[in-house]
Design goal:
335 residues; TIM Barrel; 16% strand; alpha/beta; seven-stranded parallel beta sheet; four-stranded antiparallel beta sheet
């Protein structure tokens, strides 16, 4: 099987010839140490990873070496982490959000990285289109704190802007489908931490739930598999997400006491699982042997059907390059 076929097989809740793998993000320094390149496409190709996660491309206008304003109008600061910190958000008054213009989904540069990967991999590796299911766009447009406040004090305006964000993501998905034939969407909107949801579950179901159902169904209607990522304790909403139509859940966060074996026992092979090698544990400060043991345990817990092995979030800068290599080698030996 090709990497693309393996991931699609797992998402169909079947068993491929080998458990597949891909990451949301591989830090440049880790990738360069292992492959000699900082290019994400080169890194995935050199390490023979089954798929690549690709976001739409948005322009950046730098005002200093580490500060820029992106195409959404957000001012960000590079911190060395995979996500730049937001210093100023573009929507200052949610009651006037109608004056805000979203970036053009059909801009000529919007899918340059996706096109590069499509040409390079020629159908042999899965192209995972990383979009949103709404809340992360709200966080970026309003600011994290203000998004949570407006969720409570301006629910009607919050819902209206959230629907606009969903519409934007659906447009992006349709364009990518038409141009490149993409068939996997991953939404990486975090709505929880280790203690549970960022909102009361009933609030989530009332204000966010309907748009989540709409965006997932929109992706499915276009012919996409849908992978849902969210860190934290998501036990209050997993049943709802499954009913909404997601195909895969990531990462079954060990930092929130979520467990692969318990999730597999509850959902069986009706849900593909992704994860769950702890990127704050052995990948950072353990030995290659400890990483290999964790890989074997994960495969035993999740099984070889309907499973994609990966870190519990990303291969960030704190991960030892040799430990990530050990993870991939252990997967190929045991998967």
């Amino acid at each position: 099987m090709t990497g693309k076929e393996r991931i699609e097989c797992a998402l169909r809740k079947e068993q491929p010839d080998c458990v597949p793998t891909f990451e949301w993000f591989i830090d440049e320094a880790v990738g360069e140490a292992l492959t000699g390149s900082t290019d994400p496409v080169d890194i995935v190709d050199s390490l023979d990873i089954d798929g690549i996660n690709i976001r739409a491309d948005y322009t950046k206008e730098f005002t200093s070496d580490d500060t820029y304003t992106d195409e959404w109008g957000a001012t960000r600061k590079l911190t060395g982490d995979c996500i730049a910190a937001v210093l100023q958000s573009p929507v200052e008054d949610i009651t006037n959000h109608g004056a805000y213009t979203f970036p053009d989904p059909a801009a000529s540069h919007r899918f340059e990285t996706l096109e590069k990967a499509a040409v390079r991999f020629d159908g042999k590796r899965a192209l995972i289109l990383n979009l949103r299911d709404g809340f992360s766009d709200m966080r970026d447009m309003l600011g994290y704190e203000d998004a949570l406040v407006q969720f409570m004090v301006e629910p009607e305006h919050f819902t209206d802007l959230l629907n606009r964000a969903v519409d934007h993501n659906l447009k992006l998905a349709r364009i990518a489908k038409e141009r490149f034939g993409t068939n996997i969407v991953a939404t990486t909107d975090d709505v929880a931490n280790a203690n549970g949801l960022l909102f009361r579950p009933e609030q989530y179901m009332e204000l966010v739930g309907p748009t989540f159902e709409r965006v997932v169904q929109g992706y499915k209607d276009m012919g996409y598999f849908v992978i849902k990522h969210c860190d934290g304790d998501i036990s209050a909403v997993v049943d709802f997400w499954v009913e909404a139509g997601i195909d895969c859940l990531d990462p079954i966060d060990p930092g929130a006491d979520m467990r692969l074996d318990e999730t597999r026992a509850k959902y069986g092979d009706s849900l593909c699982l992704k994860g769950n090698i702890d990127c704050k544990g052995a990948l950072c400060d353990g030995t290659a042997k400890e990483v290999a043991e964790e890989v074997r345990d994960a495969i035993l817990q999740a099984g070889k059907s309907a499973y994609i092995l990966s870190s519990s979030n990303t291969i960030h800068r704190g991960v030892k390059p040799e430990n990530y290599r050990a993870m991939l080698e252990a997967l190929r030996e045991n998967g």
